[in-house]
TrEMBL record:
Ranges for domain KARI N-terminal Rossmann: 26-226
Ubl conjugation as UniProt keyword: no
Domain KARI C-terminal knotted, chain residue ranges per copy: 223-365
Family label: Belongs to the ketol-acid reductoisomerase family.
SUPFAM superfamilies: 6-phosphogluconate dehydrogenase C-terminal domain-like, NAD(P)-binding Rossmann-fold domains
PANTHER family: KETOL-ACID REDUCTOISOMERASE, MITOCHONDRIAL (PTHR21371:SF1)
Organism encoding this protein: Streptomyces aureus
Pathway the protein contributes to: Amino-acid biosynthesis; L-valine biosynthesis; L-valine from pyruvate: step 2/4; Amino-acid biosynthesis; L-isoleucine biosynthesis; L-isoleucine from 2-oxobutanoate: step 2/4
Protein name: Acetohydroxy-acid isomeroreductase
Residues holding Mg(2+) 1: D231, E235
Keyword list, A-Z: Amino-acid biosynthesis, Branched-chain amino acid biosynthesis, Magnesium, Metal-binding, Oxidoreductase
Cofactor(s) the protein needs: Mg(2+)
Residues that, per the record, bind Mg(2+) 2: D231
Length: 489
């Protein structure tokens, strides 16, 4: 892993205390926008290739942040793209030179940000690379392509800088919180950045400028390899796949115990996306348990200690398959097999029919944290945290990929709609992973964790939770959290 400390010739940096040391971070905010021309020195045209959720959000944020500069933001799309009409409605047009063929836009840009799907990048990266002008910088928001190139024995083209800025939230969150930042300075989605190749010595400040322009309140350093491993593992575990497995298995457990569908939904999905997520976001992981009465803590402890081991085994298995390329290959193979065919929807299972009624009666009731659900969810989150820590990821990456992205970006959207909606409407890479691993979590918890929860809690595991270093890391990160919750209306 790369050093977590770095310097900038443009931006004022801070040192954040984390377990076992320090990390250098950049605290964002609109007061830094005046420094963007210096950070983007040598860049007169930014090409954003793709108009999915990230492409749309990043193109709009970059354009808005750079409006008073001589830097142009253009969107490049494949010929015949159905997204062209929406890009035009947002002000990117052929007439203004800000909308065009993806290869043309790439060839004319000084910074080429590749935000097409992972499978499309695998299929077309060589075409894009071949069009780049000398010294153009390649920008990524995910390290998937690096993993593919290494698996295939290839690399990025020589002579080009390769940087990444990776928002720790989906595209809708990146745009929505940026817009909220117009009223509340610092509102935005945290980002990691990586410098993979830096032939001109300008890559760090360029990446930091890109992150600031996206509205990131907190930017930390990682590597492309570390990013794609933590990101893809997280999608399949606590951010999406495991959440789906958790709520489906808990719903079944509560129904078998005699609860009606609406109550079972409230105790499972509604609890995870509502009171549990809000508690962690505002007060940390320990607060989930501390807010319970003594009987509730006993239930939490039994659920937590029964869940941790099977959760850790699954997260480790996912990590190994990401690290050795198996999971990346499965995404590429699935994309080739499925092509443009739609995948069947997870949201057709029986539990999701109760969601509409649950959401309709929220205003009339304040749900308490359900102890058993809280224990299962928290144990899964800690299992991912421990796996990342053992694999030497930086603490900023650990808490953002395992906690902050979940409770401040994804779970609020799941709360507004439901978990199944998110699984059925996320990126194909994430969707394929959630569909593969969600059932694994569901079956492991039903067959292993829940029967074991009838036994007394493991006291050593609970002591490890109480004294876990993640609490220190989250406390430090919380000082950088925007004062506003994301609006999902």
């Amino acid at each position: 892993m790369t050093s977590k400390n770095y310097t900038s010739r443009v931006f004022p940096l801070e040192t954040m205390a984390v377990p076992g040391g320090t990390e250098t971070i950049l605290r964002g905010g609109r007061h830094l926008f005046t420094l963007l021309p210096e950070a983007f020195a040598g860049v007169r045209r930014i090409g954003v290739i793709g108009w999915g959720p990230q492409g749309r959000a990043q193109a709009l944020n970059l354009r808005d942040s750079l409006v008073d500069t001589d830097i142009t933001v253009a969107v490049g799309l494949r010929p015949g793209s159905a997204s062209a009409a929406d890009a035009r409605t947002h002000g990117f047009t052929e007439e203004s030179g800000t909308l065009g063929d993806w290869l043309t836009v790439a060839a004319e840009s000084d910074l080429v940000i590749l935000l097409i799907s992972d499978a499309a990048l695998v299929a077309h990266h060589q075409e894009i690379f071949a069009t780049l002008k000398p010294r153009a910088v390649i920008g990524l928001s995910h390290g998937f392509l690096l993993g593919h190139l290494r698996t295939a024995g290839n690399d990025f083209p020589d002579g080009h800088g390769v940087i990444a800025v990776c928002p720790k939230g989906m595209g809708n969150s990146v745009r929505r919180l940026y817009e909220q930042g117009a009223q509340i300075n610092g509102a935005g989605i945290n980002s990691s950045f990586a410098v993979h190749a830096d032939p001109d010595g300008r890559a760090t400040d360029l990446a930091l400028g890109w992150s600031v322009a996206l509205g990131s309140p907190y930017t930390f350093r990682t590597t492309l390899e570390s990013e794609y491993r933590s990101d893809i593992v997280g999608e399949r575990a606590i951010l999406l796949g495991a959440v789906h497995g958790i709520v489906e298995s808990l719903y079944t457990r509560y129904r078998l115990a005699g609860d009606d569908p609406v109550t079972a939904y409230e105790k499972s999905c509604e609890n995870v996306t509502g009171p549990i997520a809000r508690t962690i976001s505002r007060a940390g992981l320990l607060a989930v348990r501390e807010g319970l009465d003594s009987a509730g803590r006993e239930v939490f402890d039994c659920a937590y200690t029964a869940t941790y081991a099977p959760a850790r085994e699954l997260v480790a298995e996912i990590y190994d398959e990401v690290a050795d390329g198996t999971e990346l290959r499965s995404v590429v193979l699935a994309e080739r097999r499925l092509g443009a065919r739609p995948m069947s929807e997870i949201g057709r299972s029986p539990m999701w029919a109760a969601g509409t009624e649950v959401r309709a009666r929220r205003a009339a009731r304040e749900l308490p944290v359900e102890p058993f659900t809280a224990g299962v969810f928290t144990a899964t989150m800690i299992a991912q945290i421990d796996e990342f820590a053992e694999r030497s990821h930086p603490w900023s990456e650990i808490v953002n990929e395992s906690v902050i992205e979940a409770v401040d970006s994804l779970l609020p959207y799941m709360h507004a709609r439901d978990v199944a909606y998110m699984v059925d409407n996320c990126s194909r890479t994430a969707r394929l992973g959630a569909r593969r691993w969600g059932p694994r979590f569901q079956s492991a918890y039903e067959q292993i964790a829940y029967p074991a929860s009838e036994l007394p809690a493991n006291e050593s595991l609970m002591r490890a939770f109480d004294t876990h270093p993640v609490h220190e890391a989250l406390s430090a990160a919380a000082k950088l959290r925007p004062s506003v919750d994301i609006s999902v209306s």
